[in-house]
Specification:
By secondary structure, this protein is an alpha/beta fold. Helices cover 53% and strands 19% of the residues.
Length: 203
């Protein structure tokens, strides 16, 4: 992946760390964005950035709300401005919840869908548009395998499959691919290997 650029939007989790480090060790430069502006995500993503610095890869961090279209579009623009291109977007948005169906409120439903489905849509749209102009790129929605997710969490994951299919049909002729990769919650290293295999196969 020497000379390639990967943009990763995530929460600063150990899975995010494993994926970012694997991409950097393979030669890629990395743009890191948060899902929200929480102190925890800010710290987590900047901690990952420190490891990328130690590896010697170009990188930058954008602390943002990934459910706001203007912030995501700005992050995409900054990726091209600072790193020159983007070969793969990794959207690892996750807000896990396990509320019983008869107790799931409309606000909880909407919040889950906004983070877990609308956020990836905004990222895929913003980066996909620029990848279309670039003539190549891979959009990868990374979902984390968990048991007991509630109706909103389950619906969002099902929606990502349809979203990936639609991106492929809309921009496939321009060289943009999209797919969903499922990663286990208990083995970040294995998840990173699965994501890296998809990226390298679609570049």
């Amino acid at each position: 992946m020497a000379g390639k650029v990967v943009a990763l939007i995530g929460t600063g989790s150990e899975l995010d760390r494993a994926i970012a480090v694997a991409c950097a060790e393979a030669g890629a430069n990395i743009a890191l964005g948060t899902v929200d502006r929480s102190q925890e995500q800010d710290f987590g993503v900047n901690s990952i950035a420190n490891e990328l610095w130690a590896i010697g890869r170009e990188h930058f961090v954008r602390v943002m709300d990934a459910t706001e279209a203007t912030e995501v579009a700005s992050f995409a623009d900054e990726t091209w401005d600072r790193l020159g291109r983007c070969d793969a977007l990794l959207a690892i948005h996750e807000l896990f919840a396990a509320v019983e169906l008869d107790e799931l409120s409309p606000d909880e439903w909407e919040r889950s869908l906004r983070v877990n489905l609308t956020g990836p849509f905004l990222a895929g749209q913003a980066f996909g548009r620029l990848m279309e102009r670039q003539g190549a790129g891979a959009v990868v929605f990374v979902t984390i395998e968990r048991t007991g997710g509630d109706a909103a969490w389950t619906a969002a994951h099902a929606g990502l499959e349809g979203l990936a299919d639609h991106i492929g049909r809309a921009w496939g002729e321009a060289g943009v691919s999209a797919r969903v990769v499922r990663a286990g919650a208990s083995d970040p290293a294995e998840g990173a290997r699965a994501v890296l295999a998809v990226i390298t196969n679609h570049m």
